[in-house]
Amino acid sequence: VEIDLVKFCSELTEEMQLSDRNQHRINFIICSNCFGVSASSVRAYMDEKLLRHIFSNLLSNAIKYSPSDSAVQFRLTCENDYAISQIQDAGIGIPPQDQKLLFDPFHRAENVGNIPGTGLGLTIVKNSCSIHGGSISVDSEVGKGTTFTVILPLNYQSKIHE
Ligand code: ATP
Ligand code: MG
């Protein structure tokens, strides 16, 4: 289906902000020069269900693994028919030895302490990205924060129906 990716992401950001009892500042940032003059909407053929799996899990992790008064950045840009999104937090970070294993079911990093979780969110995210023809990567430093980068084609559905 055709969706407006900017609208989808900003509504999801608002939804996450409202449900966040710890009051992080969740900022949705569109890299407007990548979209030309109008960055207020981006038409894309994408699967909303998969997008929701991906971004709600990444945003809830960013919220869960960072201090309650810190900011979470959700950035969106487009390049060559791909949407590039980044979810960045200033949280606990992920030890290097855990970074390769994060997407395996039930794997949790050694520094989670008593923060609750089952270790399944990122497995769902990774699978959703690959079903959607995209990819995900992580960049993180313990004690500094974490950035997940997701690259997804803007024309997923149209490819399927061709
Ligand atoms: P749930 O299944 O409820 O999402 P979870 O959050 O533990 O549980 P994942 O979302 O799959 O599971 O994440 C796997 C692990 O990766 C986490 O347990 C945590 O160690 C680490 N992790 C994920 N996101 C972050 C983040 N933004 N900052 C720090 N660590 C993270
Ligand atoms: Mg999670």
Question: What are the SSEs and their pairings?
Answer:
Elements: E1 2-4, H1 5-19, E2 25-30, E3 43-45, H2 48-64, E4 71-79, E5 82-89, H3 96-99, H4 121-131, E6 135-141, E7 145-153, H5 156-161
Parallel strand pairs: 2-4
Antiparallel strand pairs: 1-3, 4-5, 5-7, 6-7
Helix pairs in contact: 1-2, 2-4
The chain binds adenosine-5'-triphosphate and magnesium ion.
Residues 57, 61-62, 65, 89, 91-94, 102, 108-109, 112, 117-123, 146 line the site of adenosine-5'-triphosphate.
Characterization of the model:
The chain is α+β, with helices and mostly antiparallel strands and 162 residues long. 33% of the residues lie in helices and 28% in strands. It has five helices and seven strands, in the order βαββαββααββα. The chain has a five-stranded mixed sheet with strand order 2-4-5-7-6, with helices on one face. Helix 1 (5-19) packs parallel to helix 2 (48-64) and helix 2 (48-64) runs antiparallel to helix 4 (121-131). The protein is globular. The mean pLDDT is 92. Residues 57, 61, 117, 121 line the site of magnesium ion (MG). Adenosine-5'-triphosphate binds at residues 57, 61-62, 65, 89, 91-94, 102, 108-109, 112, 117-123, 146. It comes from Crinalium epipsammum PCC 9333. This is histidine kinase. Residues 1-156 form the Histidine kinase domain.
